[in-house]
């Protein structure tokens, strides 16, 4: 994706997202705007300082819901990278909080819905019209 496209989409992303991720894809349909971000192949600082070889071992995808964009549900798929240090069995990952604990919502969006829900219960009902039932996932 070009730098111009990434810079434009950065306006719609949670703060500091592009410090750790690059936008690899995006698309939209009648209901959703979907943006895929891949974690940069940059191991955490403590791993880089070691003398051992560090190998990227693949990704784990996490999809969260963010503020709607132009009346469409915004789905952000973060491709989280895992690394393995030579000679160790466990996989390591960078600690980047993406979703509000216990939800599939971006933290700022979860706080917004919680606050608005207290004052205007119709906000949550409005949002549910655009979201699939919980058992369907995203």
Name some characteristics of this structure.
alpha+beta; 5 helices
Percent strand: 25-35%
Dominant shape: globular
Please compute the radius of gyration using only Cα atoms.
17 Å
> The biggest beta sheet, please?
4 strands, mixed
What would you note in describing this structure?
The model has no long low-confidence stretch (mean pLDDT 76). The protein contains five helices and four strands; from the N terminus they run ααββαββαα. Strand 3 (54-69) and strand 4 (72-85) form a beta hairpin. The chain has helices at residues 3-10, 17-20, 45-48, 107-119, 122-128, and strands at 21-28, 32-39, 54-69, 72-85. 26% of the residues lie in helices and 33% in strands. It starts with a helix and ends in a 10-residue tail after the last helix. The protein has a four-stranded mixed beta sheet with strand order 1-2-4-3.
Topology (SSEs and partners):
Elements: H1 3-10, H2 17-20, E1 21-28, E2 32-39, H3 45-48, E3 54-69, E4 72-85, H4 107-119, H5 122-128
Parallel strand pairs: 2-4
Antiparallel strand pairs: 1-2, 3-4
Write a brief caption for the model.
This protein is an alpha+beta fold. Helix content is 26%, strand content 33%. It contains five helices and four strands.
């Amino acid at each position: 994706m070009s730098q111009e496209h990434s810079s434009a989409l950065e306006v719609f992303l949670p703060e500091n997202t592009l410090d750790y991720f690059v936008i690899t894809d995006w698309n939209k349909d009648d209901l959703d705007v979907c943006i895929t971000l891949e974690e940069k192949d940059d191991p955490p600082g403590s791993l880089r300082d070691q003398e051992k070889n560090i190998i990227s071992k693949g990704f784990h995808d996490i999809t969260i819901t963010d503020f709607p964009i132009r009346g469409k549900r915004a789905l952000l798929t973060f491709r989280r990278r895992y690394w393995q240090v030579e000679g160790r069995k466990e996989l390591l990952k960078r600690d980047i909080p993406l979703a509000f604990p216990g939800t599939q919502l971006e933290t700022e969006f979860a706080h917004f819905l919680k606050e608005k829900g207290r004052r205007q219960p119709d906000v949550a009902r409005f949002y549910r019209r655009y979201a699939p039932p919980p058992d369907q996932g995203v």
